[in-house]
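User: Sequence in, structure out. Go.
Assistant: Echoing your sequence, followed by the structure tokens.
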Amino acid sequence: MRINEQGRLVMNFRTKAHFRGLFVESHSSGRIERTATSMSSTVISVDHPGLTFNLTLVRTEPTYNQPFQQWTFLSDFAIRDYSGTYTMNLIPCTTSQNKEYTVPPVCNPREYLTFDLDIRFQQVSDPVAVEFSLNTQMFLLSKKSIWLSDGCMGFEQESDVTFSEGDTIYGRVMVDPVQNLGDSFFCSIEKVFLCTGADGYVPKYNPTKFEFGCLADSPSLLYRFKILDKAQPETQARVFGDVSFNAVLAVDDPSAVSLVRKSGSDGFRLDSTAMFQVAAGREWFIHTIYTVRSKENTNRGIGRRSLEYHSFVSALTSSGTKSHRRKRSAHNKIPAVAEDIGVENNRGTNIMHIALDRTKRRLRGSDELFPDDRELGELNTDDQEESLVSIVGVLVGLLLTVLIIVTIALVLKSRQKDGKEAWSEGVREVVKGSVSTEPMLVVRMQDCHNSSEV
């Protein structure tokens, strides 16, 4: 089981037929219980019903006597988490005892045999090689106190967190925190990128395979932003749609002075709200570029490092809301922003997945988190009250309508009774009656002229 270059699942498995015959990919002229049909072996994902596969029989032993067969299937597109139950529906094709093996096989297809396979397999961003990370680690934290700490509070435990809508994401890059080598080095974050893959693609940084994570435009990326650039802040993407990233480098954050003063560490922060604008299932990744230098070779001010910026920032422009699709003369050209990354240039890079929790949302103007159903229930209380009033009004209206209909029916019945009595007294007496009743009585006489009552 593996993930190919496009992020699609490749599964290899082997079967052994416990019958005289073998399994086949398809059978176009088989007869199963008196029903002629065309059959094909298939793979179905129970947990991902929209995910389809291409199943192939790779090889089979040249025998009908319980042969071993090797199969492979490839997902038609990529998703990040392939965990779940996979059902293989294979066609068993049986033969008689005296039949010899032939190519193609001559056999009789039977009903599908079904096999379930449970797997746990997620795409993750491959660890960036040491030659590119420069012996550093990047952490994403939810607590500001941990972000500003001296590193003794356990970043490993605190970094495995999910972020709800409205949370602040604190990022920190540290030089070899395990061996405590940071005291002899300075780390300075230069750029921070944010991106999400298309069709489940997980961005990776591997220049030898022309994979550059979030640093370069790619058809595999759905959205890509440069949210921080120390040298050229005017080129930063500050909003996604109409929601601000509120991204700030630690050096520009007055409350993060203690972090800036620490040797071997640097950081940044941003709001998570903008990332919740994409549909559930889209995964976000954050990618940083930083400079690591020993104390004797480091100038943490503008000075020398400003010259280093110039060598690679000229190729970058500000990102819009959608990933730009620039045309290049050569598809395998290394982007300028990645050319200087490596030990020889003291410039490193790292990429991490941002885990979002969509089950909770933060109320505006409040620091308290609520589950979606509770929040919606509280926000819609007024609407429910208005709906209750409307229902009561409709019931009252229906009751009044019924009363009016009953009243009209009684009046008509009373008038009909008076008309019958007047008819029995004769037309002459009707003529002598009240003028106001003449039209009504004349009309009723005309209506009843041929009635059975007459």
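User: And one key feature?
Assistant: Residues 130-370 form one domain.
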